[in-house]
What does this fold into?
Amino acid sequence: MFFFTIRRIIASVLVLLVSSFLVFALCAASFDPLSRYYTLNPRPPESFFNNLRDELGLNDNFFVRYWNWLSGAVTGDFGQTVNGTPVADQLFGRIGVTGRMIIAAVVIAVVLAIIVGVIGAVRQYKASDYALTFFVYILIALPTFWFAALLKEFVAGGINDLFGSQVLYTIGEETPGLALYADGWELWSDRLGHLILPTISLAMLSFAAWSRFQRAAMLDVLGSDYMRLARAKGLTYRRTIVRHGLRNALIPLTTVVALGIGTLFGGAIITETVFVWHGMGEYLIANGIGQQDINVVLGWLLVSAVFVVVFNLIADILYAVLDPRIRLA
Amino acid sequence: MATTQATQDTAGGVLPATPGAPQSGGGVEREFTVKARSQRQQIFRRFFRNKVGMTGLVMFVILLVFGFIGPLVDGKTYDTQNSSAQSVPPGTAGYLLGSDAIGRDLLAGLMQGVQRSLFIVLLFVVIAFPLGLLVGALAGYFGKWVDSLLMRVVDLILTVPLLVVLIVVASNFPSSRTPLGVGIILGLFGWLDLARIVRSQFLSLREKEYVEAAHAMGASNSRIIFKHLIPNTLGSLIVWTTLAAATAITLEAALTYLGFGVNGANQTSLGRLVSDGVQAASTRPWLFYYPGIALLLIVLAINLIGDGIRDAFDPSNRRVRA
It folds into this structure.
């Protein structure tokens, strides 16, 4: 187990290294940090561009640039944005914002997925299974931003009318400026009000796919011989389902969820856009790509890759811990 | 994004569909039938008896009729602007589903949108399918360093969420804001999970006796791959195609919503209509509802068909023995 873990960690670091090189090559080829000066009128003299290129190190050899960037990134220095502020501070702040949204959503989604998946499998081809399947398929087919807009329009409006005050917020992660003078309960309840709708939106969509997965895994397990043996030994139906069935059927879901969290950190872009959260997604699109800011895009992609690789690693190790057969492979 | 990926993982993970493998249930059925049914007949039979799959198929055919025959009956085009019928609500004479801010007929728009979305799907499949199949087949069949090399490349691309890869690539090609451009970009990066599925199936299939027998009789590698291995992965390939087609429609909508999809002037797609409609959710709700529902229905139909096909190819899943 120990060597298995070590081997996987080394492999992950290698993947990250190569990935960082490819990402750097892609970004260096496609983004020009000087692009915003080209359209200035009157156009700055050529010497201005040359000075800037020297200053930003754009005239260096490609590999020197990569090395400079990488050695900075490893120590937590992702360079500066086009506005001269450090990328790292903003990036880490935004991971927190996105994280707030994701953690609650993942917990809700996993619990719902297990319940719905197990019910669907145990009652396969019964009315309740068909009803749940239909519901889940509709959720899977819903366009994320359309569903989120629906929540904003109706759930938020309805609940706020009911309470007669603004309970649910549809925009942003907290009331702007509130953090400057409020703290404790006032600040956190405000954040909670902002959090609920995006969480529901994200949770519903992740849950839908996971529940199908859980249902399939549970069906596999229900057909296995050890389930029949457990029943034959006289265990109650409920006990075989929970102790023997569910325990084993949870193993595949662990992997899927771990992989899902990794991509969600970078990939909650649409939900963030709809609810105007100043999280990772917005940072990439508005500050990174929108401003042709190579350091922002690079930093973002690296952080996102780290999340994906780390959660891949967690998934691998979890799988090996939960299912010892895998270590032999 | 994660949801779409997980959907496809489900497709790959759950699928032990190896039509060539002996079927445990087959012997029982044979006692009652006089004439044995061929593999293909059995699969079709199972699909046509599957309520979920048939519901999807019927929905899909209706959508096809709506998108391709509807415009002939309706006789209008979405491009026609009418300054005297701007933002009219549904039910107005000549505008069954209402019109948008510059007086274009929403019904005609939906019909065109369905066409464009299916065009994007077609393009996506035509590009992604051969790529995924080729990479997966090479890696799975030859193993060793070919496998390591190809799969590490796939792993590398997958360290960035697919939607982000698409955004970064699309942002470099501002001229790709058309259904054609989006279809191509989706196709170029949408094959990664297919390659993984094909590889894992090939890894186990190439150890089978019939492959060894073919080798012994002097069959070439390409003959073994095309005549023996690919037909045996057909189930997974078809299921992947349907589920990925549904994902492609969703991805197009997402890309368009973020401004990297079908965002050119005078361009339409379902995703574009839905994205535009979101801005008008409270003022002109018909522009919000109908495109969203159309997109929902088309993705739902394709997913249901995929589910039906998966069950049809996988007889072991039919009965629960516990």
